[in-house]
Structure formats: structure tokens, C-alpha cells
Design goal:
Low-confidence stretches of chain B: none
Strand content of chain B: over 45%
Largest interface: A-B, 26 and 27 residues
Structural class of chain A: mainly beta
Distance between the termini of chain B: 38 Å
Radius of gyration of chain B: 13 Å
Oligomer: heterodimer
Number of helices of chain A: 0
Radius of gyration of chain A: 14 Å
Shape of chain B: globular
Structural class of chain B: mainly beta
Number of strands of chain B: 11
Largest sheet of chain B: 6 strands, mixed
Order of helices and strands of chain B: EEEEEEEEEEE
Helix content of chain A: under 10%
Low-confidence stretches of chain A: none
Distance between the termini of chain A: 37 Å
Largest sheet of chain A: 7 strands, mixed
């Protein structure tokens, strides 16, 4: 149980285009999902908290117009990187918290999406 | 966003050696998690500790939560190449997780 998937696993795009990344909780419902960014050899940095049916909460320094988040259902959140530039190239990871349990804020992570902007 | 400090940052050891990784903060945690992340994959939860002084074991991995709930350690006995990865601690005081700086472990056969 507690499986989270991400699609696509890898994407290469041209500068100026937009890229959408999907995050799905496969066997549980997630009122809250999280989006992280990870640069090579570094830890995860939280970008935003995605709340089902409401606006996402962005961390300081993260541009909400650049990284659009939509959480339309209890099993799906999407992150759209708009007008991508090479500096947006990174490993993007989502996580989800089971709405029905998890006493200690345990989150389950997706396998990540490697974005390369040329 | 405050990161938790982990040490060492990097560790390269031979198969069969023991090692300890530390996670420290000036703040008290209500709970702390340890994750392992392999290259190109998402982190996988290893354990959650919640009580000061708590010790949990997962095969060759021993996790300890400090008495004051401000620090934690992960000890690996007889490391194997399969233990290679990035080890991350995180605290869950609020709705969101804050991750440590990470310890990258390489175990050579």
C-alpha cells in the first residue's frame, strides 16, 4: 500500500515551453500533497503544499505564477512549470499524506521527475 | 525554511564496516523520520521516532531519538553495498516536513 506515482519520469523540453507533471496516490486518498525540488547531490527543498479543492501554499521564494499547482481530486495533483528555462532543470518529487491515517505526518513519495530544459 | 543539520555529509566505507549518521537541530521535534533515497528515485520511509530516548531497529539499522527530542542518530552495522544511498532525516512538527541536509553513503564491495 501507500504507493505514489509520478508522470512523466523524465522530460526534456525547449526553453520557453511549459511542462506538466502529474502526481497520483494509487491506493489511498490524499487531501494534501507536497511538491519538492532537488538539485544534484542536495537535499529536498519544499516548494509548495497542494490542498485538494483549494489554492496551494507556496514556500518563500517560490514563484506561484511560475509553478502552477492544481489539486483537483483526492488522488491527483499536478505541477506545471510555465515558460521553463534551463535554471528550472531539476528533479521534482511529490509526496502525499494519507487522509485517513498517519499519526506522525508520514508522507509517501513518488519516484520523481527529471526535468531538463534546453 | 530551516534545514536540519546532518553529519557527515559524505561517507565512503568498505562492506562490513559500521557507521553512524547524525541529525541535529536546535528545535524540539514532535516526531522525526528517517528516509533513504537511491539515485533517480524518491525517498523511502525507514522509520518514525516520537519518544525521547526511543530506539528502533530495522534489521542492521538502529535508530535513536535523543532524550530531549532535538537530535537523532542512525547506526548501520556491517554495511552492505545495498545500503548505498542518500539518508535524510526530517521533522514533522507542523503539516509539512522539513528535511535535513542529507548524508550520502557509498559502500564499496
Amino acid at each position: 500500500g501507500a504507493v505514489v506515482s509520478q508522470h512523466p519520469s523524465r522530460v526534456i523540453c525547449k526553453s520557453g515551453t511549459s511542462v506538466k507533471i502529474e502526481c497520483r496516490s494509487l491506493d489511498f486518498q490524499a487531501t494534501t500533497m507536497f511538491w519538492y525540488r532537488q538539485f544534484p547531490k542536495q537535499s529536498l527543498m519544499l516548494m509548495a503544499t497542494s490542498n485538494e479543492g483549494s489554492k496551494a501554499t507556496y514556500e518563500q521564494g517560490v514563484e506561484k505564477d511560475k509553478f502552477l499547482i492544481n489539486h483537483a481530486s483526492l488522488t491527483l495533483s499536478t505541477l506545471t512549470v510555465t515558460s521553463a528555462h534551463p535554471e528550472d532543470s531539476s528533479f521534482y518529487i511529490c509526496s502525499a499524506r494519507d487522509s485517513s491515517g498517519g499519526l506522525y505526518n508520514e508522507q509517501f513519495f513518488g519516484p520523481g521527475t527529471r526535468l531538463t530544459v534546453l | 525554511t530551516q534545514l536540519l543539520e546532518q553529519s557527515p555529509q559524505f561517507l565512503s566505507i568498505q562492506e562490513g564496516e559500521n557507521l553512524t549518521v547524525y541529525c541535529n537541530s536546535s528545535s524540539v521535534f514532535s516526531s522525526l523520520q528517517w528516509y533513504r533515497q537511491e539515485p533517480g528515485e524518491g525517498p523511502v520511509l525507514l522509520v518514525t521516532v516520537v519518544t525521547g530516548g526511543e530506539v528502533k531497529k530495522l534489521k542492521r539499522l538502529t535508530f535513536q531519538f535523543g532524550d530531549a527530542r532535538k537530535d537523532s542518530s542512525l547506526h548501520i552495522t556491517a554495511a552492505q553495498p545495498g545500503d548505498t544511498g542518500l539518508y535524510l532525516c526530517s521533522r514533522g512538527n507542523t503539516d509539512k516536513l522539513i528535511f535535513g541536509t542529507g548524508t550520502r553513503l557509498q559502500v564499496f564491495p
